[in-house]
């Protein structure tokens, strides 16, 4: 609902009609306009799409490849989720929630531990999005009779990013990019230039994530949720300064180390907010069907 509200805001400001490239089914077009986040096949979309690696000439083959992806990512997701929960089986591993920071440890061990938890949590989020998208892909092709080209990859190997700018603009999923930029980035660019545009874009991203956290019914944590994305914006701005001063983009293995350090360091804020509200303790797969539980036993 939040996404539709943000998209509706952009629609009200559009100076040209929205047109779809091919297809005349009014019901499907209306549904795709309202629910489709990347605007694939529409003249308004400016989202970067990852290159396709699956065969698109045959729907059957494409669906089989997607089902294979599901068979891979579901157990990996469950194993990673179990691993994260195992660090706090009686605290943030439950729906009661808790902090990922262990005050009984020295600062070095405390933040090393929390950063590792955050890293694993990032992998969990990656797998969860892949699973959701794969399910939607199969539904779109089998039930709605859509073409495989309407379901390009949602990620572009984010672990290969060599800068924060590349990570957020091309390699992480681009589901909300249009209205993040349109609602937050464009107005702030007019008022404060590029710096305002970058921070405005990431502010709307943080706001959307905070609304999702608030939707769990345990309040919000705007400082951590919005703060994480604002710091991502500052990181992108720093990369712009670097390019302006040196004449070179942030890139290569040094850029990769920089990206990982900045991203994982501030990710502690985001993951701790999720942990405190009980999100990490959510039950996605019943314990009776969880392979890690059968192998290592229940967490509590």
UniProtKB/TrEMBL annotation:
Any GO molecular function: O-acyltransferase activity
GO cellular component: membrane
Localisation: Membrane
Keyword Transmembrane: yes
Regions crossing the membrane: 62-84, 116-144, 179-208, 220-241, 253-275
Metabolic or biological pathway, per its Swiss-Prot or TrEMBL entry: Secondary metabolite biosynthesis
Bilayer topology: Multi-pass membrane protein
InterPro entries in alphabetical order: Wax_synthase, Wax_synthase_dom
Keyword Transferase: yes
One BP term from GO: lipid metabolic process
Keyword entries, A-Z: Membrane, Transferase, Transmembrane, Transmembrane helix
Main subcellular localisation: membrane
Domain Wax synthase residue range list: 151-230
Family of the protein in this entry: Belongs to the wax synthase family.
Protein name: Membrane bound O-acyl transferase family-domain-containing protein
């Amino acid at each position: 609902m939040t996404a539709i509200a943000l998209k509706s805001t952009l629609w009200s400001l559009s100076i040209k009609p929205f047109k779809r490239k091919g297809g005349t089914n009014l019901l499907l077009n209306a549904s795709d306009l309202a629910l489709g986040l990347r605007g694939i096949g529409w003249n308004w979309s400016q989202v970067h799409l990852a290159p396709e690696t699956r065969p698109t000439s045959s729907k059957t083959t494409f669906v089989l490849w997607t089902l294979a992806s599901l068979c891979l990512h579901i157990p990996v997701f469950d194993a990673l989720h179990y691993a994260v929960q195992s660090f706090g089986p009686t605290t943030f591993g439950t729906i009661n929630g808790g902090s990922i920071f262990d005050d009984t440890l020295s600062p070095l061990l405390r933040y090393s531990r929390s950063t590792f938890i955050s890293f694993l949590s990032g992998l969990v989020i990656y797998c969860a999005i892949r699973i959701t998208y794969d399910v939607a892909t199969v539904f779109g092709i089998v039930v709605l009779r859509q073409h495989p080209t309407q379901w390009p990859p949602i990620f572009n190997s984010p672990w290969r990013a060599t800068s924060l700018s590349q990570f957020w603009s091309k390699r992480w999923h681009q589901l909300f990019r249009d209205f993040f930029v349109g609602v937050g980035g464009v107005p702030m660019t007019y008022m404060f230039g590029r710096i305002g545009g970058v921070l405005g874009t990431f502010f709307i991203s943080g706001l959307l994530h905070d609304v999702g956290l608030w939707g769990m019914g345990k309040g919000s944590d705007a400082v951590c949720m919005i703060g994480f994305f604002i710091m991502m914006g500052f990181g992108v701005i720093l990369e712009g300064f670097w390019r302006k001063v040196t004449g070179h983009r942030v890139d290569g293995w040094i850029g990769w180390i920089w990206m990982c350090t900045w991203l994982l360091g501030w990710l502690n804020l985001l993951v701790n907010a999720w942990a405190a509200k009980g999100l990490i303790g959510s039950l996605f797969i019943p314990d009776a069907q969880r392979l890690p539980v059968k192998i290592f036993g229940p967490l509590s």
